[in-house]
Give the backbone structure.
Amino acid sequence: MALPSYTETRYRIWHYIYLTICTFVFFFLIAPLFVIFPLSFNAEEFLVFSEGMKNLDPDAFSLRWYKDMIYGTKNPWGLAAKNSFIIAIFATIGSIILGTLAALGLSSRHMPYKGLIMATLISPMIVPLIISGVAIFFFMAKAGLAATHTGIVLAHIILGTPFVVITVTATLSGFDHSVTRAAASLGSNPVNTFMKITLPLILPGVISGGLFAFVTSFDEVVVVLFLAGLENTTIPIQMWTGLREQLSPTILAVATCLILLSTLILISAELLRRRSERLRGINR
Amino acid sequence: MSSETKQILTTDGIPLEVSLKKAEKKNKIKAFLLVAPLLLFLVITYIFPIGDMFMRSVDDRMVTNMLPKTFKAMEKWENLEELPPEEVYRGFYEDYKVLVENQEHGKLGQRLNKEKNGFNTITKRLFRQIKRNKIDESISIKEQINKIHKRWRNVEFWLAIKRTAPPYTMAKYLKGMDMYVASDGSIAQVDEDRRIHRILWLRTLEIAFFVTLFSFFMGYPIAHLLATLPMKYSNLLMICVLLPFWTSLLVRTASWMILLQQQGVVNDFFVMIGLVGDDNRPEMMYNKVGTYVAMTQILLPFMVLPLYSVMKTISPSLMRAGKSLGGTPFVAFWKVYFPLTIPGIGAGCLLVFILAIGYYITPALVGGASGTLISNQIAFHMKTTLDWSFASAMGLMLLTGVLVIYWIYNKLVGVDNIKLG
């Protein structure tokens, strides 16, 4: 953003102050994530940069915490990762199905009480997690689903659907309904129309909502803390326990893997967003 | 013919108006049926349980169910300055005998003791008399009970029993605000040094407010930069906002724990530039500083994204027009650009405030004792003291606050305008 040549000096100074502030904020946002990388390769047991690391001594770096994460005898990470993925996948599928159907209904101009229903469907995103956790715990305890995978999956569907509803509703806002009418006039039944016409067009929204639901479930700890038993431990629960009790570098190895995973998700979400905007004809 | 318009008929001979209404109704039902599965699911698993929380928070039926005859007899107790009549004593005696048979008398003693100190002793005395069959039912029970302990002759204790009669209580809500119902039925404040909850509420509001403020002052410049830079640069910088947004909350909290610890990078840096001595490293974690820093960084993307999406729609020619009409860049910014970004400011601030006010994980990990919020107190009562009704009451008080903000948000921005990513 070059300044025009006629800018006065004082505005020039202001402009550079502004750029400095922005640099500082971007640094503040992103730098904390990068402190985890080098420390996860620490050869020692402490969570500080050792003298060797500061001097880039190769002996100060090792893969021992990654080995510990995968092969460690008492390590719960294997079970936790398995549980996390199973729960997140089922919760995502559930959220996508329920959320997409609801978004289709909400986008219809015939929908009665649209505002009220939308507010209700979005509420799990707004209500503080701790309250959701208490309420869902009461329900699951009564239904006998506490400390089961099913209970946690249902809880995560509750928390994940608002994201799907929002993204799919947004995609549908630019949706041309005459194409479905054209399909119907050509003799297609509603299910066929949905599968062949509507779904491919709203797919970017559905998938990006699904990504949100997946991340929400994969990262969720407050509600799981109320619901999980020993058998249902997840990665966030293990991290929470580890961070509370003692910071072991194994946690940093796990954190590094999680950052890589979120980078992957970020890239796919961005690609989807661009595709969706292209499909809807929004050029920015 | 032309004066009276003939009803237009469809090919089936049904008036068009009727046919149209029917079709509209069908569409309405169709749309509703699509929403129904999720709505039903949420109502059963989420909305009802929140209602259940409310029932738990006001429920006080334990004593009501334990002393049915007593409360029935108390309806006839008119002069509340004198001891209750014989029937009340007899009713209480009979109820208590049933409780002794079911071995529930201890619970009653504890509950009444909460209402008025000293109850546990005198109910235990009564229990012993009943166990030894010392009470003769053929003569006045009132006199016999009054002989057991002088407190039974004190009308205050009978009034305390009477106060537990209603099946519902607001006591848990009052406790959440450090108040209680005094023995004369009025609402009183707890002693000054025991007002822990009010401190927590204020601290929660304070932290949420300042985190919102910090995020705003940090988020506004970078949202502006992102919105005005050419696409190829802004896309790259956008990653700095989106990567933290997509990264696990616990990972981000962990990185702050590493940075802020006493031997951590931030302290190392302070020592290096000579700001603090090596042996005098400040404590930046397990207090408010840690909570502020970590929460601001974690919630900042929620401020930047709504601001960005609003700023993106503001045409740069408006600023140029402002300047060409004689405004300095500052005036042009303040009078033209800033007012246009207000919807984004409202959205971002409310979103961050709502999220901050209910924050749990980060304060619990980096907050220490002075950085914990009301959510941590709720979790504490759910998991440690097991006072679920109190946890529910505090949760609902917090929820009421959040819903008010949500309502404002909805009025200002509209829930359907929430943008993600």
Q: What stands out?
A: The longest strand of chain B covers residues 179-181. Chain B has a mean pLDDT of 85.
